[in-house]
Structures are given as C-alpha cells and as structure tokens.
Specification:
Largest sheet: 5 strands, parallel
Number of domains: 2
CATH topology of the largest domain: Rossmann fold
Low-confidence stretches: none
Strand content: 15-25%
CATH architecture of the largest domain: 3-Layer(aba) Sandwich
Number of strands: 9
Helix content: 25-40%
Number of helices: 10
Bound molecules: N-carbamoyl-L-aspartate
CATH class of the largest domain: Alpha Beta
Mean pLDDT: 97
Distance between the termini: 15 Å
Length: about 300
C-alpha cells in the first residue's frame, strides 16, 4: 500500500505514466466510469479548499466511486481534541483511500503512518502540495508538449507557497530546466529548497524581485497568491499582498508562446484582462487537476 506525501516519492517514469493515463481518461472518459465502483474516497480537509477538494470528489465520482468527508476542522472531532492519527485510524475502516489537507506541515505524513489505506497529501501548511504539482505537470505537458528544456518563472510568495515547493522539486528532475525565482525579499524561496534541490542537482536559477526583467526568457510564468493565512501579522501581509499584479502591458516583452499558470485562487496577482489571452492556462489547469487525480486514485488503489 502506497501513500503520496511528497512528489519526490514518485519516479519520473511513474509521473509520465500518470500523465499518460490522464490523457487517456480525457480521450476516453467512458472507459473509466466504473473503475472504482464500490470504492470510497474520504476527503479530510482541516483547512479551506475549493478546487482541490471538489476535484478529488469529482474525480472519484467520475470513476464510479463514492465520497465521504468533511471540509472544515470545526465539523470534525479535531475540534474536540482528537489526534490526526486517531482520526485516520478510524476513517481507514470507512474508506479505501484518504485525501487530507491540514494547516500543520507534516500532518498527512503522520496520518499515513497510522492509516491502513493510502493517504494523499492535499496540502500541508506552507510545505508541500504534490497533487497540485501533478496537475501542473499535466498542464505543462499538454500546453508545451514537453517537460524538459524549459525556463520557469515562479512569482509571488515563494516562502509559504507550497505549490511552488512541490513544483520545483518535480521539475528539477527534467533535463535543462531553469528557474527564475521572482519574489519580494521577505518571501524568497526557503534556503533548504535551494540547497537540497536546486544546488544539489546543479540547476541553473536566478533570483530577482523584478518580474519585467525576468519576463523575456520565460517559457512558463507560474503566479502565486501571497499566503495570508501563514503570516504572523496582518501589516506584513497588507504591505506585500500586491507585490506583483500581472497586467497585459507587463506581457509586452513576453514570449509569444508563454504559458501563464496559477494554482488559484487568485486575489490580485493576475488581472482579469489576461483571462482571454490564449497564453492564460489557469482555468485549463484546474480541469487537468481532476483528470490527474483520477489517474492517481487508480494508481494508489491499484486498479488496472
Ligand atoms: C493552492 C493551495 O492550497 O496551496 N490552492 C490550490 O490547491 N489550488 C494555492 C493557494 O491557496 O494559494
């Protein structure tokens, strides 16, 4: 039995296989409609979510399975003081697979040690978000036709943005991928990620506060929201929240085939005037999230 806590637990070959299955689901959805008949997914969300939770649920329904769960800590026994380990030990008797989001870094890992069914990390604090990264990789592979030879600009809150941490860990394994790390000084990528991933693998990267200066080289621009819920005080958040706002004029020196991505929700980072630009991929990205989660559920449940 296998869980998914960190994207690095999947080999590049396994990721390629998940992408292939997701593409097959997109092409032949009817072939998958009963694959998870009589199987149940539990969504244990101790922190707010729209896309991640509902795309997991839609994924399980489209596989013919069923879904149970909760969408806020207040409506679970966590509010009475129950531990994550006890909760998942119990849920293991009610469901075949668990998707868990938690504000504490490491909580899904702890859960996976107590569970007797696979646990998927659906986001743990400011740490990791492996299934968003799977959605991102499917998006990149469909938009660009490749996962190698890319210059990726990640912009915004690189400190607390868990989607960025998992994306860098995943993309660093492909040939000739370079990163531009674009953030305010206070929201730089944590140094452990630079050290353990970028420097350890000898990946080329630049670090800047200037989005316009980085723009001309980018094949992908991955915008992120400043993660208000991780800040220690509101003043810092208010000062930093609008550090980057992508508007059509800022794209003037961008490549014609740039892909603009965002895990969503967006606040102000991307002007709605960009939405109609064919380079804007973020709504397609949300749909791909459902298909890749279908592929992941099939893999972890070992359904052929
Ligand atoms: C992201 C998350 O929860 O980390 N959202 C998502 O899952 N699509 C990004 C965010 O909340 O900013």
């Amino acid at each position: 039995m296998r869980s998914l806590i960190d994207i690095q637990e999947l080999s590049v070959q396994e990721i390629d296989e998940l992408i292939a299955v997701a593409n097959d689901i997109i092409a032949h959805p009817e072939a998958y409609r009963e694959k998870c008949k009589y199987k149940k997914l539990a969504t244990l969300f101790f922190e707010p979510s729209t896309r991640t939770r509902l795309s997991f649920e839609a994924a399980m329904y489209e596989l013919g399975g069923q879904v149970l769960g909760f969408s806020e800590a207040q409506s679970s026994s966590a509010s009475k003081g129950e531990s994550v380990s006890d909760t998942v030990r119990v849920i293991s008797g009610y469901a075949d697979i668990i998707a868990m989001r938690h504000p504490k870094e490491g909580a899904p890992l702890v859960a996976s040690l107590a569970a007797t069914v696979p646990v998927i990390n659906a986001g743990d604090g400011g740490h990791l978000h492996p299934t968003q990264t799977l959605a991102d990789l499917l998006t990149i592979s469909r938009e660009k036709g490749r996962l190698d030879n890319l210059t990726i600009g990640v912009c915004g809150d690189l400190k607390f943005g868990r989607t960025v941490h998992s994306l860098i860990a995943a993309m660093a394994r492909y040939e000739n991928v370079k990163f531009a790390l674009i953030s305010p000084a206070e929201l730089k990528l944590p140094s452990y990620i630079k050290k353990e991933i970028l420097q350890a693998k000898g990946i080329e990267y630049t670090q800047t506060t200037d989005l316009s200066a980085a723009m001309p080289d980018l094949d992908i621009l991955y915008m992120t929201r400043v993660q208000r819920e991780r800040f220690f005080n509101e003043e810092d958040y208010l000062r930093l929240k609008d550090s980057y706002i992508l508007t059509p004029d800022k794209l003037r020196n961008a490549k014609a085939d740039l892909s603009i991505m965002h895990p969503l929700p967006r606040v102000n980072e991307i002007s709605t005037a960009i939405d109609a630009d064919p380079r804007a991929c973020y709504f397609r990205q949300t749909l791909y999230g459902k298909y890749i989660r279908m592929a992941l559920i099939l893999k972890l449940l070992e359904v052929a």
